[in-house]
Amino acid sequence: MSPSRGRRPGRPENSTGPDQRSQLLDVAVQQFSEHGISGTPLSRIAREARVTPALLHYYFGNKDQLVDAVVRERVLALMAPALQSVTQPSPGDGASHLLDRFVATVLETVSAAPWLPPLWVREVLTEGGQLREMLIREVAPRVTGAITEAIERDQRLGLLNPDIEPRLVPISVIGLTVFALATHSLWSRFPGNQDIDTATLIRHVRALLSSGLSGG
Amino acid sequence: MSPSRGRRPGRPENSTGPDQRSQLLDVAVQQFSEHGISGTPLSRIAREARVTPALLHYYFGNKDQLVDAVVRERVLALMAPALQSVTQPSPGDGASHLLDRFVATVLETVSAAPWLPPLWVREVLTEGGQLREMLIREVAPRVTGAITEAIERDQRLGLLNPDIEPRLVPISVIGLTVFALATHSLWSRFPGNQDIDTATLIRHVRALLSSGLSGG
DNA sequence: CTGGAAATTAAATTAATTGTTAATTAAATT
DNA sequence: AATTTAATTAACAATTAATTTAATTTCCAG
């Protein structure tokens, strides 16, 4: 429908701000995170960006290509550091250091971009999610491989709890981090929970992972 | 479209099986789990049940009332035991026993009804989920209250890791259990992961919660 | 046996949405 | 002045979904 009140057709006067295309990506990623990809009509993205749906076609061609652009230029770009944190060989340190680094990187990355976890949960982790195949291909193998192997190695050396299933560790870590942040908007509304911040979450997850509830 | 091949209008001959209404609820809950509530048209439920959409209106009135029936007669009914496992006062045992019981009950309940975790993730845990408010009202307060308090108590007694944030424990437990099972269809497809069963998952989660990776 | 109630389908209706395109307008650039 | 770029307006076309109505068949009570 009508974009920013009173805007008439025609090229606008030069603005100095960030370019339109990039702003549209920002709005799109936000909307995809809040309502899911298939739950976000172009018209809503357009409305939020104070623009018309036709402009989205002007910049991206069609919805699929918009999703593509969002994935490449926003999602994958953001996840690169977390990926590196496990794939870069860290000479000499064992599984627990590896995980510590991974957890910290993930939680920091994701705190800075609160739209990422909900998007992940909806579009990667739930059946029929539109980013599933893509991210399984590009992300999962490397991350799970590196973590699982490190755990197995330390377990053989008798350094780790033998009841831990190495192949479940990546899932557990995602559950404790991405999932926790994805549902932040839910549990932070419970009485007395408003003040839980990222630092607390990092400390909590690290403590739980390294020595569990009983503490070490 | 057309229900079971060649079925013509009219009341069918008496069948001895479970009643139609109940079967429709089963199909609905399954579909809601796979595709989400708003992603499931009545026509798909009808097709899967080899019936016409009109019959769903006959039994439930409209889609909202169908959702209501699913929640009351399937979802809440199933979760009752897990609720009891934390709310029933267990004389004398501390937080770790409480959690052990909760984890076991949740994992058992949910293994028997694999449709529950995906439904939860989609409709409770993600923003805009249709079961959010309902289940927040009915479930969350009691569960989180009981767990958080038990942890705080034991922490004051010096029995538990002080870096653990009591208010985050319920989230972490959900992340390690419900979430892990919700994504089962995802990670069980990775090479070498086919054989991870519920027993392994229970052992893993308990080990992680009680003493972390480093083991006790 | 008969007539009404129950269970079911077929078919139409209504209502909205949504991605997409075409035509048009106005500023910027050369 | 001519052309390209950035935007809007307006409408199409597909289709999708929930709901309603009428017809059909079987069951069951009297």
TrEMBL record, chains A, B:
Residues 41-60 bind DNA. The keyword Transcription applies. Residues 18-78 form the HTH tetR-type domain. Residues 13-22 have a biased composition (Polar residues). Keywords: DNA-binding, Transcription, Transcription regulation. Gene3D superfamilies: Tetracycline Repressor, domain 2 (1.10.357.10). Residues 1-22 are annotated as: Disordered. It comes from the Bacteria. The keyword Transcription applies. This is TetR family transcriptional regulator. It comes from Alloalcanivorax balearicus MACL04.
